[in-house]
């Protein structure tokens, strides 16, 4: 049997931290499963019972869960996901109730007001005050950014591969526009750091868990390997934007 | 044959051969690329010229290309000498080198990179093309899976080539069904598909693809099947009807017996959403990773209404001609709409006339997990070739025991594909099968090397699907994993989270390579203890004498192979 589970709770445990992976059938391209596994594991290590829920795109999105995850996807599935989520409205209801959302890449774009896929503009979920459009060139490579200081998180590191209010200002890579990266609005965080973004950003994972559980501070856990990975990846990237030239950090909304 | 080639082609060929020899002599390479590159500069049509007059088979797909090419060349050896790009140089330069070096062999088997298949089809005009599988691989630079499938489908519509295709891969099935025109056709092989996460969505209509798999991972069945009508297929516009009396709550129905085989004691099982802690977890639709944490609310538990299975109404196999191929009918341009797919895809029975499953022998093997699109008529075609234990079953039902030196179920499937391709050239599988046993390792893949008292076996795994296959092959011994992220590997290691490493649970696991820390974080999340070592040598010294498995991605594999004197 798999040991790749951090689940200790059952579906009947009221206090279980419920993590929903939205539409893995449509939005799962770059190890997007990782964010779910990482959150479940890190919550489990803190003694929180965890329930993970994979919601396929022909199923209703539960409205009462604690954390929602949306991953990357190709144009066609991305457009289909937006259409189905707008019809379903479950994610909208959850966000209204201050559920925590981490969306990456295509999942991030479709939470905006509009996005571009297959050469056409599509209505997004309008849960983030962003719009996205095709870039002139595809952004592929390591991404580094200073996260909005209000969130109190260390430098963002990730890998981006994509063609939008910022979550971080970019010091290497492209992000939204070469200056800003991702978006933060209420309890919703979007990033172009694709796939298992949390593998290199354990503090961000803990922030999401803290938000979802209402804890101010989580017990420390052994982060030897994530920290070594962070150091290695940050060391492998040459900072591309001079500090003085960086765009101002956007305010949270 | 070669005397008919234009003068420019002759010149280009000799320059190509000279450059290749120079490359080898100076130790700069194996000559499999540079020779072809120079030759093509002199004569841009060199590949086409070298291909003229030969009978050629191409092999493409995400995984298993090199191995299947080697096996196919071995099978075709029944006919005489066979030219092949056995060193894995799978772009036109490599093909050019291979054919230039081969002289005037009548036959050639060429491995082709997925992206180059259209170009190489055009220049070499092959008799047969084998399509193995499609899954995510190097997404930071490669085309997405659905795009490749679409490219292939459109390409095959324009070539009178016979296709040997994996019936277990929906993307391959859809692409292969594009083969049209005079002389075109498809032979379906039950080659298996362990990795499902790139084919949950129908490439034709965007609906979901359903699969039937038991909770123990064994394929159990086909989909819900209406009793087979006596008459000809009805118009295929509607989804299959629910068998009377069966409660289909989740649109998921599987047919299975308790041991995962289909025999006289089959029961029709209907999937319903799991009541809390209720039901029998005997079979679930395989909809996601094996490492889905327990307690997922979408985990299906199956109730077992005792609904009689329709009597074996399956016609005892489809007509199995010489190579069991089907005539292909024109399908493409425009791509078939959902309503027309069943009409037009060769080998795909119309949905309303699904063969009754229980007697389909192909459904009893792990390779035979049935699948179908829930929104259109795309579904698993009935394969003519399949694997059963150590035997390949040919379209006439004859079993050919394969004494394969290569490990894993996937290589027995590759052997089946090789025999199916060779059969298109008139090779009797009974004569070809013994030759497959002579293939021991391919450019280091599966090589076994003695070093410092350790018996090391090398397994190459480049992407999530490949890792799943490697875990199937690996024995329960100390295991070294190595990951790099250089250009040939893809720069992005995100896919490590697509792989469930839990098969390694309980083994001594060592990790190394330039991206070992990514692996470390992944294994940590997977709760698998490991030791990080800085080199292959250290890894060997830190395990006791005896068997060691090495699983590595491309350049990491080449690094280790170099330390083992470039073992082949």
Structural class by SSE content of chain B: alpha/beta
Number of helices of chain A: 6
CATH class of the domain at 51-207 and 318-436 in chain B: Alpha Beta
Order of strands across the biggest sheet of chain A?
Answer: 2-1-3-4-12-11
Sheet-strand content of chain A, in percent, reads: 15-25%
> What is the makeup of the main sheet of chain A?
6 strands, mixed
Structural class of chain A: alpha/beta
CATH architecture assignment name of the domain at 51-207 and 318-436 in chain B: 3-Layer(aba) Sandwich
Largest sheet of chain B: 7 strands, mixed
Give the CATH architecture of chain A. 3-Layer(aba) Sandwich
CA-based gyration radius of chain A: 17 Å
CATH superfamily of chain A, by name, is Class I glutamine amidotransferase (GATase) domain
Which stretches of chain A of 5+ consecutive residues score pLDDT under 50? 1-13, 241-253
The CA-CA distance between the termini of chain B, in Å, is 32 Å
Shape of chain B: globular
Mean pLDDT over the residues of chain A: 83
Per DSSP, the total helix count of chain B is 15
Q: Percent helix among the residues of chain B?
A: 25-40%
